[in-house]
Amino acid sequence: MGEELAGKVAVVTGGGSGLGAALARLFAREGMGIAVLDIDEASAQQVAAGLADELGVPATAACVAAAARHVDAALGGCDVLCANVGVQQFGAIDRLTEDDWQWVLNVNVLGAVRTVREFLPLLRARSGWRRIVLTASSSVVAPSVRMAAYQTSKFAVTGFGETLRAELAGEGIGVTVLFPGGMITRHLESSAAARPADLTATGAGDDDLTAMLAHTPMEEGDVVMPEQALRNLLDDLRADEPYCMTHGSHRPVYERRRSAMDAAFDRMEAS
Q1: Do 157 and 109 contact (CB within 8 A), yes or no?
Q2: Beta-strand pair 33-37/80-83
Q3: What's the rounded Cα separation, in Å, for the pair 172 and 188?
Q4: What whole-number distance in Å separates Cα of residue 168 and Cα of residue 154?
Q5: How far is CA 24 from the centre of its chain?
């Protein structure tokens, strides 16, 4: 895998911390050049500098605006694009504000769409092994309460990824949807910092996290470090798998949901 990826270029959005920084490190360890993109450009610069110093790979950082031109000029193209976009928003459905919904959908869904739209020309300009990774969430396979805006956005990212995979298959560009579970990151902190100050007050309440955890209790192994969550990603990308599950005890919930869908097909076909 190292020989296959060494010398190629990976672009990671949301790379200034958490899962994004772990993605950047994962590809850097394979000898890839790394572009770390984040709305927090100082954090992106810090991650990029650390990778260059520690692993000796070419690395650059930028804010998201005009990033494709910067990456093309600094690193010469893009072979792997990780559209790792996501802000979290808790809140009961009847309390979520219009601003809550618009902010989350704009960042999580349209942010992923814009990222792909900007970097797809660079991917198409390359040849050989090329991949796009879209970060969804384990909550797509095992939804919980008080997360309607976030989960809706990640369902949309999943649908976008599945459509993108079908449309790019003939060009040899693989698309994988990543479903990370709970991780030890600054996600909640960075989400709060990213919310524009001029929006109306959020509909989140103090009881939202408690209600979510009561509905979907955490088991051992449900919360891990980002590096552990990504342990299978390179193998899945190499095999051009459509989905990558990271960790967590979500299979029983998924199987109940799948059984209910199968039953709906059975009723339809029997009618």
Answers
A1: yes
A2: unpaired
A3: 36
A4: 21
A5: 12
Using alpha carbons, list the distances in angstroms from residue 175 to 152, 200, 231. 20, 36, 18
Backbone angles phi, psi at 91, to 5 degrees: 150, 135
**Global pTM value:** 0.95
CA–CA gap between residue 56 and residue 75 (Å, rounded): 14
Q: Is 246 helix (H, G, I), strand (E, B) or coil?
A: coil
Phi, psi of 175 (to 5 degrees): -125, 125
Which tokens sit at 82? 């990780």
In degrees, rounded to 5, the angle at the alpha carbon of residue 158 between the alpha carbons of residues 232 and 172 is 65
- How far CA 253 is from CA of 9, 52, 131, 248, in Å, comes to 37, 42, 29, 11
Residue 251 has φ and ψ, to the nearest 5°, of: -55, -45
| Confidence (pLDDT) at 162 | 98
Q: Are strands 80-83 and 130-135 parallel, antiparallel or unpaired?
A: parallel
Structure tokens at 147: 């997360």
Report the alpha-carbon distance of residue 98 to residue 93 in Å, rounded. Answer: 11
pLDDT at 247: 96
pLDDT of residue 16: 93
Helices (H), the chain: 2-5, 18-28, 41-55, 67-75, 98-105, 111-125, 148-168, 187-194, 208-215, 226-229, 233-238, 251-270
What CA–CA distance (Å, rounded) separates 13 from 174? 18
Closest alpha carbon to 82 in 194, 231, 234, 228? 234
pLDDT at 101: 97
Catalytic residue list: 150
Name residues of the chain where pLDDT drops below 70. Answer: 1-3
